[in-house]
Amino acid sequence: MKTKNAIKFILFVSLAVLSIAGAFRVLKWKDTSGDYNSSIEQLKNTPRDTVDVVFTGSSHTYCGIAPATFWSQEGYSVFDMAISGQDKYSSYHSLKELLKTQSPEVVFVDLYPFTYEKHAVEGNEHRNMMALPTGLNSAEQLKDYYDISEKEERTKIANYFLRWPIVHTRYRELGKYDYLKNPANDFIRGEGLMFVANPAEYFDPSAYVCEAAELSDKNMQLIDRFIELSEKENFSLVFIVIPYHSGDTDLSILDGAISYIEGKNVPVVDLNRGREVLNLDVNTDFIDNDHLNGYGAEKLSSYLTAYLKENYNLSDHRGDSAYHQWDEDYAYCGKLAFETVLNQCESLPETLNMLRDQRDYATVVSLELDYQNAEYPYLEDLKIFGMNEAEFSAAGVWVYDNGGLKRISYNNPEAPVSTYPLGRYDTLSASFHGDLQPENVMISTTDISNCGYYLKLTVYDKTLERVAFQRGF
Amino acid sequence: MLFNSIQFVIFFPAVFLLYLLFPKKAKPILLLAASYFFYMCWNPKYIVLIVLTTLTTYAAARVIDASGKTNVRKGFLTGCILFNFAILFLFKYFDFFLSTVNKGISLFGAGELKSPFHFLLPVGISFYTFQTIGYVIDVYRGTIKAEKNIVDYALFVSFFPQLVAGPIEKSENLLPQIKSLKEKNLFNYENLVSGFGCMLWGLFVKMVIADRAAILVNQVFDHYYRYGTVELVLAMVLFSLQIYADFAGYSFIAIGAARCMGIRLMENFNTPYFSTGIKDFWNRWHISLSLWFKDYLYIPLGGNRKGKVRKYLNLFLVFLASGLWHGASWHFVIWGAIHGLLRCLEDLLSPLLAKIEKNTGIRTTPFSYRFWKVALTFFFVNIAWVFFRAENLSHAVDYLRVMFTRPNPWVLSGEGIYELGLDHREFGILAAAILILFAVSLIRKKLGKEIGVFLSEQNLYFRWLVYIALILVIIVFGVYGVDFSSAKFIYFDF
Fold this sequence. Notes:
Chain A is of the alpha/beta class. Chain A folds into three domains: 1-30; 31-336, SGNH hydrolase (Rossmann fold); 347-472, no CATH class. Chain A is built from 17 helices and 16 strands. Chain A has a five-stranded parallel beta sheet with strand order 2-1-3-4-5, with helices on both faces. A five-stranded antiparallel beta sheet of chain A has the order 10-9-8-15-16, covered by helices on one side. In chain A, a hairpin with a 5-residue loop joins β11 and β12. Chain A is globular and about 75 Å long. Chain B folds into two domains: 6-184, no CATH class; 191-493, no CATH class. Chain B is 70% helix and 0% strand. Chain B is globular. The A-B interface holds A 5, 8-9, 12, 15-16, 19-20, 23, 27, 158-159, 162, 164-166, 168-169, 171-172 and B 6, 189, 425, 460, 464, 467-468, 471-472, 475-478, 480-483.
């Protein structure tokens, strides 16, 4: 009887633990404001010992370092171990987390996190304290960041370590990718590139002549710990400063840190003060004053590719199937750039021409019955998709997918709803309720009806399962 | 250490495991050490008070039991009661007493008297003081022999599941169980199963219902002047559910934790909102306190043996004392007085009502009759709760004035009630949880079984399903964590 009860007890506890673990998997912290993309998830999806070069840091890093550039130019497998607002302790412990599965040859540590002690934004504190999986490493990270002698900070440590006191309230915000794996996390290499260009203020750090600050004990200790870690784990350590709009205070701290690091015979690549080598254009290469865009990232990454080639003997992994994620990431970055251009394009023939050979996208073409009123030769432009006059004159909804045009529906109010599967969770549906009416064309619950336009193009990204572009003509 | 804290989640399994591993003879020592540790997690200094109460009541009971002289017995009983009530008065009622005196003397233009003490209210002081005084009276009456083993007795006073918020155990129930710890193995699997179910249920009603309802209740009670009838009625009803879920939740956890170790504590709540009258309500609400007042105050005052006037006076006094027991403030006293008044009126008017029912042909057997009585009782209990929850007496009176004079039914058509701290989703969760509470209360009422026992009798697959669902609901929908400080159980302050 006792044995039977003991077995029942163990079975129950196991089931309960499994259920709690399942619930935690859904509720755990995910970077929702980063479209559920997270470097730690991407790292988890990376095969062991495939990363040769690592960059740690904040948004400066994930906006400024494009692994795809290193890959396309020299076949270097680069990973951005970056988190929004990454503090210096999170840099160190994120790197330690990476070292559990990877053996990089070179690690670049951005010095920007050394310019501050505490997060100014609560969201960044959450991100950094909950990004790493609960364990010894994350416990050490919390111990490093918080003052254990303060009661309030001890409570924070406990909450962050246990996670549940914080994440359980996420039941209010759960989305698709809390339940499903975000496919983008399978191949993104930690970067968060954006190809939008916003003119930045001109900033010349060389104009700032300030005295190097005396390095704080904490900064000094952490730099020493990075150096010790590099010796223990046998990687080459390089400190870097990625260009940003740094003021007097930051520059003096950075100068102090650089001076200390150089005294330890560890290389520093200061591309903030030394930004002229990058030929950055304030009008085209920045998202804002502090962040490079995809074009700026390409310049910075090209420079660093050359730096790596000159100073280290790294392998070219292109063509090696174990490194397919870098191929996919390269394609993804190309898509991001493509979508940026697509969204900026207002000409129908140019838009159609850009979409013609894209196999990763399905384009929904929706034409209202009264298209003649527009007095625009839509048919001429649409011929590039294989549209003919007979098809066109009846108007309706088509999908251009894998190089072929397929009719989905006619604009007939009597006809039943027509559907076309686009992704695992997305179906195109068309049912005509009259010209200009809403819900004529839907992708799942998203209304992509013409609503005021004679012709509407909607581009669906089949890999990332999202609407990438919509425009009426 | 709160029952709904991570500390208790670690503490209880650790103590339980040690309890299983320790030899029988050492079990009381283990539980006593655990109980003192549990109490000291709040304020280590106040353990002195428990020890003092334990030693004085232990010694007094031994003397009372051993002495054949009535005056010695009476003297020690009186001395012991006065001494322990003096501690209670000093720590709980002195400030209230002084502020009342100050109000009184200020009428004559006298200056304010300053308190020489600045004590924090020791948690659970009312509970263990009443439990120990009950024990000494039992010994005096000869209901129970004085306990000789100081460890067993100290454990009776401080047993951690019921130390800070009851149930206020009768010595004849708890002490023999504690004594038997050394002789037989009280633990068995069935107790563990039903005790665990009881604890989960207690955590569910406390964390999912009480603490969620509290968000709206606090918003409305703190700013009642901003709102109208709809919001104030809603908050009043939700407070009724909150205080029940809070206190009954605590009692379920206490009873469940003790039962896991094979110790049976008395039931403290029996579907009180299904009561058909005030007397019925007090037979179902905080049963251990009602019994204490009946055994140790109402009966010694003469009960119903000295005529009708004395009976109603005694009843009224008991309810006043009950109000005062709940808190050192006039609004608690008034709350008690309302219940006393209603209880007396109910008793006085019942023959008249019976006559009216008979003459008008009102049938007393249908559901509708019973429903009406339950609804009426619930209404009066709710009105009284306003005095209990309000900050002070004038606040309570004003709350009721606004509630009865500012009808605003249009609020029900808008979004107004979702702007009181609980949005649509949170309202939905609260409503669903209250429905579950209602269903479980029906089971209790119809089958006469509390939830832990009911679940332990079910098939394994169903029981496990319920247990795991409860665990998940508590950890996901429970109100705790960074946005919500671990709210104290309301009854801890009493």
